[in-house]
Amino acid sequence: MSTVSHAHDHHDDHAHDHPHGWRRWLYATNHKDIGTLYLIFSFFSLIAGGIMAMGIRLELFQPGLQFIRPELFNQLTTMHGLVMVFGAIMPAFVGFANLMIPLQVGASDMAFARMNNFSFWIMPVAALLLLTSFLVPGGATAAGWTLYAPLSVQMGPGMDMAIFAIHLMGASSIMGSINIIVTILNMRAPGMTLMKMPMFCWTWLITAYLLIAVMPVLAGAITMVLTDRHFGTSFFSAAGGGDPVMYQHIFWFFGHPEVYIMILPAFGIVSEVIPTFARKRLFGYSSMVYATASIAILSFIVWAHHMFATGMPVTGQLFFMYATMLIAVPTGVKIFNWIATMWKGSMTFETPMLWSIGFIFVFTMGGFTGLILAIAPIDIILQDTYYVVAHFHYVLVAGSLFALFAGFYYWAPKWTGHMVNEFRGKIHFWGSMIFFNITFFPMHFLGLAGMPRRYADYPVQFADFNAIASVGSLGFGLMQIYFLLFVVLPTYRGGQKAADKPWDGANGLEWTIPSPAPFHTFETPPTVK
C-alpha cells in the first residue's frame, strides 16, 4: 500500500504538468484520457449504428415498402454492420484496455503514449469518411458489411470511402494492439508474473496478437477490391481469370478471428466481475488462460464455415464443420468455470453481476445456435436467413455489449469517483435484457421459416414476428438512451462518493489507488506479493 500512497503524493506535486481544456484531449497521452475518448467515440458510434438499425426495423415493421427504398435499405444494413463492428464494439474494448490495463499490471501508462494518441485520432476521421459516404452520388456501399465481390466491385464512390475508412480503422487497431502487447509484456509491476495477471489483461494480450495477425488480411482483401474497381486488375472477376469466391476466403480468414476479437475481451471483463461478487477466486484460472489461447488458435482454422453454400468439396465441409464444433470445447470450459466460481459463493447481485450473469445466459444461447449453424447440411438451408441474424446478434449484442455494460458498472466508480445509481442500473439491465430478447428471439423462427436477410420487403406470413421484433428494437434503443442520460452523465457529474475499493470482494492493483484514479498512477511501481 505504501508505494501506492507515495505515487499519490507525487500526483499533487505534478498537478501543473497536465494540460487543461481542449489541449488535454487533443494532445492526450495519458492512458485514462485516451481510454475515455475511445469510450465516448464508441458510444456515439453505437447511437449512429442504432439509428440505422431503427431505420431497418421501421421498414420491416409491416410487409410492403413503407418508408425506405430497397437501395437505401441495403445501404443501411451494410453501414449498420460496419459502424457497429468497427466503430462501436472494437473501440469500446480498446477504451477499456487503455483505462484498465496499466492500472491492473501496475504500469505508469501505456508503452507508447504518443502512438496511443495517434491511434485514437485516426478513428473519428475514419468514422467521418464512413458516415459521409451516404451523401455521395449513389450513396453508401450496399454490398453487405462483408463487402463481397463482385458486388463491391460494382458499387459507386461510397464503396471507396468505406475501403479507406476500414484501412484507417485497421491501422488504428494494429497500433493499439502493439501498445497493449508491449505494455503487458514489458511494464508489469515487480512480482506480477504472467500467470498472476488479471484475466482481463490475458484476454486482451491474446486479442492484440489476433488483431495484428488478421487486420493486414482484411487490408489485403479490400485493397484487391480497390484495384479491381479502378486499376484494371481482376482478382475477383471470373472474366479476367479471377475468382469471386477467393474474396470470401480472404475476408473470412480475417472475419472469423475478428468475431473472437470482439468476444475475448468480454470474457476477460466477466472473469473479473464474477469472482468479485461471488467473493471467491476465479475457478480454474490457468484453464481459463489456456482456453482463451485455444479459442484464438482454433479461430484461424474455421473460416470457411461461413461459406458452406459456395459449393466446396464434401471433405472441406466436414473439416470446417468439425473444427467449428471443436471451438465449443474451450468456450464450454469458460462457461463451466464461471458457473463453478459462483457455485457456493457469497453472491450479491449488484448491477455489474447482473450484466455478467445475463451475458452468460444470452451468450450461451448464441453459442448453441452457432453449433447448429456449424452443421453443414443445416447451414446450407439456413444460410442468409434471419436465423443467422439472430445467432450473431445473440453473440455480439448479448456477448460484447452486455459485457461492456458489466465493465462500465464495475469500473465506473474507479474512473469517476462516484458510485453508479444501483436502481437506475437495474432498470437499464432488465429493460435491455427483456427488449433484446423480444427483438432477436423471434428472428430464429423467421429464419427457420425461410425469411432471407437484407430484404426490404417480405411475404405476409412473416408479418407478426417482424412487428414484434421492431417494437422490441425500439425499446432496446430507448434503453441505451436512458443509459446515457440517467446513468452515465449523472455518474460523471456526481453522486455517492466511491471508496478506493467500492466492491468488498474485489482484488487487484486497480483497487489500491484512490477513486477517482489520479492523473498519474504508479509512478513508483507497486510490488505484487
From TrEMBL:
Catalytic activity: 4 Fe(II)-[cytochrome c] + O2 + 8 H(+)(in) = 4 Fe(III)-[cytochrome c] + 2 H2O + 4 H(+)(out)
Gene (name only): ctaD
Record domain Cytochrome oxidase subunit I profile: where: 25-529
NCBIfam families: CtaD_CoxA (TIGR02891)
PROSITE patterns, per the entry: COX1, COX1_CUB
Protein's membrane topology: Multi-pass membrane protein
Top EC category: translocase
Subcellular location: Cell membrane; Membrane
Pathway(s): Energy metabolism; oxidative phosphorylation
EC number: 7.1.1.9
Species whose genome carries this gene: Polynucleobacter cosmopolitanus
TM ranges: 37-58, 78-99, 120-142, 162-187, 199-226, 246-270, 282-306, 318-340, 352-376, 388-411, 427-447, 467-489
Family from the record: Belongs to the heme-copper respiratory oxidase family.
Functional note: Cytochrome c oxidase is the component of the respiratory chain that catalyzes the reduction of oxygen to water. Subunits 1-3 form the functional core of the enzyme complex. CO I is the catalytic subunit of the enzyme. Electrons originating in cytochrome c are transferred via the copper A center of subunit 2 and heme A of subunit 1 to the bimetallic center formed by heme A3 and copper B.
Keywords tagged on the record: Cell membrane, Copper, Electron transport, Heme, Iron, Membrane, Metal-binding, Respiratory chain, Translocase, Transmembrane, Transmembrane helix, Transport
Top-rank lineage group of the source organism: Bacteria
GO cellular-component term (any): respiratory chain complex IV
GO biological process entries: electron transport coupled proton transport; oxidative phosphorylation; respiratory electron transport chain
Main location class: membrane
Alphabetized GO MF terms: cytochrome-c oxidase activity; heme binding; metal ion binding
Protein name according to UniProt: Cytochrome c oxidase subunit 1
